[in-house]
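Page 42, continued from yesterday. The earlier attempt failed because a stray header line got pasted into the input along with the sequence. Redoing it now with the clean sequence only.
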Amino acid sequence: MNLRLLLIDDDARLAELLRGYLEPQGVTLVHANGGQAGLTALAAGGFDAILLDVMMPGMDGLEVLRRLRERHPVPVIMLTARGDEADRVVGLELGADDYVAKPFSPRELLARVRAVVRRSQPAATGERLEAAGVAVDLGSREAWLDGKPLELTGLELDLLAALVRRAGRVVPRQALLSLAGRADATVGERTVDVHVSRLRKKLGDDLGTRIKTVRGVGYVLAKDGDA
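This time it went through. C-alpha cells are written below.
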C-alpha cells in the first residue's frame, strides 16, 4: 500500500528520521513545521493520514485537530509525550483515530498508520475497493462500473484504484502517480491529465461529475450519492 502522510511537528530531526525509515517502505512523508503550516499543507489534500504532535509552539496539536475536523475526514494519529493521558483523552474526544506516545518505534508507528488507513477506506474487502459505483479488484487487476466490466490500461486501473481508495478526498495531480504505485513513470502533470481524461471517457464521465477536477490542485472521486 503506497501512502502519503503529513507530519505536523516542529521537530525537524524527527521528520528526517521518519522520512529515512518510511520512504523505503513506500510511504511519502510531507513535513509541516508547526500548526498553521500543517493546515496550509492539508488544504492541498491528497494525504492518507496525518501525524499530529500535541506540544507545539503557537497553535498546538489539539487546536489543529479541532480546525481540521471541521472539514477534513482524513485519519489522524496524535503524537504525545509519554504519560500525557489528558491530552490523549481530549484528542480522542476531538476525533483523533489513534495516538502514539513519544519516544516511539517507527515500525510501530507505520503499523498503526496502516491500520487506521485500512479502517478509513471505502468498502475495502480484501483486494477489492468500491466507491461511487466503481469496483476495482487489485488481485485480478479488473474493474467494473455499475457491475459492467471496464477495459482499462494498467496505468488507468492504477489511477482509478488510487482515486477509489480515497473517495471524497482530493488527490493532488503531482501525487496521483505516486499514490497509484507508479512513481517510476516518467510522465508529467499534463500526461496525468490526459490519462484521467481517457479514464473519464471509459467511465462515461465526459462532464466530470464522477471524477471531479479541483482547479489548480488535482482530482477527487465523488462519494456514493454525490456523482
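Notes: The longest strand covers residues 3-8.
Reminder to self: strip header lines before submitting.
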